Amino acid sequence: MNVEAWPKAAADVLPLMGNEAIARGAWEAGVKVAAAYPGTPSTEILESLSQYPASDLYAEWSTNEKVALDVVIGAALSGVRAIACMKHVGLNVASDSLMSMSYIGAHAGLVLIVCDDPGIHSSQNEQDTRLFARFAGVPVLEPSDAQEAYEFTRLAFDLSEQFDTPVIVRSTTRLSHTRSVVRVGDRVAPPSKGFVNAPGKTVTIPANARRLHPKLIEREAKLAAWFETSPLTRWEKGDKTFGIVTGSTSYLYVKEIAPHASILKLGMAYPLPEGALRTFAASVDRLLVVEELEPALEAQIRALGLHAEGKAFFPRAGELSPELVRAGLAAAGLAEAPPAPVSIGIEPMARPPVLCAGCPHTGAFFALRGLEARVAGDIGCYTLAAVEPLRSIDTTICMGASIGNAVGMAAAGEKKPIVATIGDSTFLHSGIPPLINAVYNKANITVVILDNSITAMTGGQDHPGTGRGLRGDPAPKADYEAICRAVGVSWVRRVDPYDVGHMYQTLREAVVHKGVSVVISERPCVLDPVKIKGNPLAVSQERCVACQSCMNLGCPALIWSDALHEGRHKVAIDAAACIGCTLCAQVCPTDCIQPTVLA
Fold first, then answer.
1. C-alpha span between 390 and 118 (Å, rounded)
2. Which residues of the chain are under the pLDDT cut of 50?
3. pLDDT on residue 318
4. Residue 341: its pLDDT value, please?
5. Pairing of strands 395-396, 374-377
6. Residue 535 contacts by C-beta under 8 Å, 6 or more apart in sequence?
7. 585 partner at 20 to 30 Å CA-CA among 129, 317, 384, 558?
8. Helices (H), ranges, 3-128
9. Is the previous residue joined to 389 through a cis bond, with omega within 30 degrees of 0?
10. Is the distance from CB of 378 to CB of 420 less than 8 angstroms?
11. What is the pLDDT, as a whole number, of residue 529?
């Protein structure tokens, strides 16, 4: 944390995104084992770690976040520094292991990087990891920029070993994906501590856990005492009429809007330094808390008996911004009201989210819409089929929930055909146990495994079904049909979603099958790992009757023509966007869509 001791050479200053800075900090801290499941906004951390020499560290894409945490727990208990990376909802999946490790400790440095998503840019909720950390009884550090992301990650390993605890470093979308200059250092890898041979500590039977819980409580007190004088607790003295307690990226907004305020910047959200908070509160006339999402700091400060204001002026939902901080301070009577927004008289074009041109999921969901099935969806690109024009998904809860949801729908007596859709990566993540459950309980449902041969939604990461590892090396490839048959599914079919007729007929046969049927929709993603591009198609304007049937595909390559037929616009195709999948040609009743011949 002593910046003055760091090298000053220009080569030691790098323009890093927050996630890249976290990876750099972990590498410099001597991490030997890293594991993650990709999820925005955390994905780039492990991708960045995989760029460091394999001789320095082992890194893997795990099948899910709990597996990732279990892998790094095994490494830490074996004496080497280890890191698991995930997004906030991934911590839900990994929480069972975290709760036990909170009792056990860490042995060697054990760090979890958890990236929250305020504003729900790419998630199903915006839960606050700080509450989870307090629930688990583990410290959570909150960097505010890429430099601190690098520093705090390095520090987290030291704290983990000093206090024998897992440590969470919490990032957010804004920090993870913002790039700034970072002064870096060199890798220092501590020697292995060897395996911790202490069953009384590492085996959480009730008798051991009862002895370990008081030690966890004692550890929290020691951490709070350490934070009192730590560089993570920084008092920036200013105007005494009001003081602001803040941290994370909220600190940057506060500094921009209220540079003269007294600020207590907390680099940790749990446990809090009680003495520093009481001294700071006593030094100002009015105490405010500025934080994103839940009143995690505010509630703890109030629990100390201090009068603190926060969420009365700042929102609990969504990302903060300088504008929102200014508005909140103005509402509190501590700043001028923000100026009225200036209209430039331009309305932005409405661009509803749609699947990519030629996306293989389009054919599957187009057929499902025609089937008028009750569809339980899952987490992936294909969730976009919930909106018009495909509009063929009825529920989406969380990773791996679709099959269990479908079983419940069948048990409730739903009259429509019941279908669960799940991507290949999600199926391996958390879809196999509910499939076993469906077979075991003789559910009359159809499961559609949407195999596009990649983890597409987070940028094209490999998984056990792609045949490649994190570093691109060959790996065993999961066989979805073999897995389904192994757990007792007798009706399994493979189909190409570009063949609309075959897909439609296969689904019709699947939904009348008694018991569990599985349709495996096989076609690679059109963007990852390489962009697929075939001869584009074109519409004969003379033969187009403006029936607009093709528009029900929701393909962004299909556009409106200036030509009219009986008062309705005909359709054209954007040749630059079209990949030649032929789905539109298959649904055209007049055969007016044909491939072009490239020169």
1. 28
2. 1-7
3. 94
4. 78
5. parallel
6. 580, 595, 596, 597, 598
7. 384
8. 18-28, 43-49, 65-77, 88-104
9. yes
10. yes
11. 81
